[in-house]
Amino acid sequence: MIPEAEALPTITEETKEATDAFFESEMMVHIKPLYHFAYRLTNDEDDANDLVQDTYLKAYRFITSFERGSNAKAWLFRILKNSFINNYRKNTKEPTQIDYEEAEVFLNTGKAVWSDSIDLRDKIFRSLVGDEITNALNSLPVDFKTVIILCDIEEFSYEEIAKITDIPVGTVRSRLHRARKLLKEKLAVYARNMGYAVHNNEEEFENNQDITWGLEKVTKEAE
Amino acid sequence: MKNAGIKKQGSPYSDAECEAIILKLQAMLDQDKEVINDQEFMEKVKNCEYCLEQVEIEKSLKDLVKDKLKSMIVSTNLMQSIREKLHFLKG
User: In this structure, what DSSP letter does residue A141 have?
Assistant: First the structure.
């Protein structure tokens, strides 16, 4: 937890040199993944630059609260995530997103019943380009997007994600599960738009005598 | 949650069981120690063709996200700008 600024000890002259050396060697080396995370959160280069700068300035000011020997990268990610939440979340530059609660309702009403029947091994998904994956990811609620980025791109452990996002490990596990379910739904929409049929409807699934458990090319139009 | 499981035809698991299994399979792929150390679950997965197939599907999603969302190029000005601001902060 980053304490309130007024409660923090200041860097004294005798420790300043050592602190600067420590900051340079242990903190500055993480600028690339930090920028990557910031860009994925903001979807804007300038905002990402500002966010990373803010993060480093806060990190320097609060460096005495960093426990030596602990995970510096995770600590920086946590500062960045909190800065984003505090300063950027209300920014109108944020792309259109479905609300977290709305997503929960969607996932719990049965509308997403067959999302797990979508076979992501199908070549249609491999043919999706980065922009389509990015758009699908960006359309998720920010809490969902955050855990997927931290887990699948930055490869943090569940324990590290829990510390960065201030949620229990069990919640990390379930949030990732829900996030991936929703992401599959988004990817299925892309697949559908590209001319593939996806079994995401219970009735369609039950009525289909030849269940392929995944995607099948639409051939009716060709016929 | 209604019918959220994999429910491939012939699967021995109920929808609720499937949902719980998928959550744990994802955690297994994420190297979550709690799941990896769950010998009973790991044994169950090894002996379930539906679970093994689902593992491949979940792995595909992880790979897709990681492979397609490549690292961004960090502006050289960013590092310089941070150093300048830190220098100012240091007084």
Answer: -
**How far is it, in rounded angstroms, from Cα A164 to Cα A76?**
9
**Contact, A65 vs A152, CB < 8 A?**
no
Q: Is residue B6 part of a domain?
A: no
Site from B21, B32, B38, B87 to mutate, A interface, most A CB atoms within 10 angstroms? B32
Give me A5's structure tokens.
């600024």
CA distances from A113 to A95, A180, A184, B61 (A): 26, 13, 12, 18
Please name the helix (run of DSSP H) or strand (run of DSSP E) that holds residue A197, with its range, or none: strand A196-198
Shortest distance between the Cα of A95 and any Cα of chain B, in A, equals 17
pTM over 0.90: no
Residues in chain A with CB shorter than 8 Å from the CB of B81 are 49, 53
Whole-number Cα distances in Å, A38 to A35, A132, A137, A143, B81: 5, 19, 14, 14, 16
Residue-level pLDDT, tens digit, chain B, 91 residues: 333 345 566 677 777 888 888 899 999 999 999 999 999 999 988 888 888 888 888 898 898 888 888 777 888 899 999 999 998 887 7
CATH fit for domain A100-217, picks 1.25.40.20, 1.10.4030.10, 1.10.155.10, 1.10.10.10: 1.10.10.10
Name the residue facing A56 among B8, B72, B82 (closest C-beta): B82
The complex's ipTM? 0.84
Assess contact for A64 and A169: CB atoms under 8 A: no
